[in-house]
Design goal:
This protein is an alpha+beta fold. Helices cover about 45% and strands about 30% of the residues. The relative contact order is 0.21.
Length: about 190
């Protein structure tokens, strides 16, 4: 967050969208918070390998466009290699031995998420977040802080969580996912009218 923006202004920098994702939340006891933060980088890199590959590709998009213009056949072959790397990353992801990720309805942004949960959480609690976005199968591991809990009376309480520890590649994957969903929904709305 920049020094000149309030938390509410910072939250509004990102679009939010309702979505169905695969999600698991796990509370982190206060005495284990420091250890969870230390483990974060390794766990998130392993869990979000595909996001790293996509981020590198996006980062070098201007160079790719230049090369495509000059060396079309070579870039077509590089595209095949990139697809093979993606398939390999997906195969590695398939062997994940972590928590199962049941589907959940969430309100998602690159800043955080809101969902219903039966976990006994209070504002300020740290939670581990395992998240998978569909259809691109972007997997994200993050640490988040509970910012509010509202009794909803159905499927647990309404929990709002801000991402406290989220890698840039994972944040970009969420932002792109939200953007693509917005475009799809606007197109569907226009087709309906």
């Amino acid at each position: 967050m920049s020094q000149t923006q309030t938390p509410d202004q910072e939250r509004r920098r990102y679009f939010r969208i309702d979505d169905e994702v695969a999600l698991t939340l796990k509370p982190v006891p206060a005495e284990e918070e420091a250890r969870a933060v230390e483990r974060f980088q390794d766990a998130s890199q392993h869990f979000g390998l595909l996001n790293d590959l996509r981020a590198v590709r996006t980062e070098h998009l201007p160079l790719r466009r230049q090369l495509q213009h000059r060396h079309g056949a070579m870039m077509s072959y590089i595209g095949v290699l990139e697809r093979q790397l993606e398939l390999l990353a997906m195969a590695l992801d398939a062997h994940w031995n972590g928590p199962q990720l049941p589907n959940a309805l969430v309100n998602l942004s690159a800043q955080g998420l809101r969902c219903n949960s039966e976990l006994a959480l209070t504002p300020g609690d740290l939670v581990e977040i395992w998240l998978m976005l569909f259809p691109e199968h972007s997997r994200i591991y993050a640490l988040g802080r509970v910012v509010s809990v509202e009794e909803t009376g159905e499927n647990g309480d309404g929990i709002a969580i801000d991402f406290a520890h989220l890698r840039e590649a994972d944040q970009e994957a969420i932002a792109q996912h939200v953007h693509q969903l917005q475009i799809q929904r606007l197109r569907a709305e226009n087709d309906y009218e």
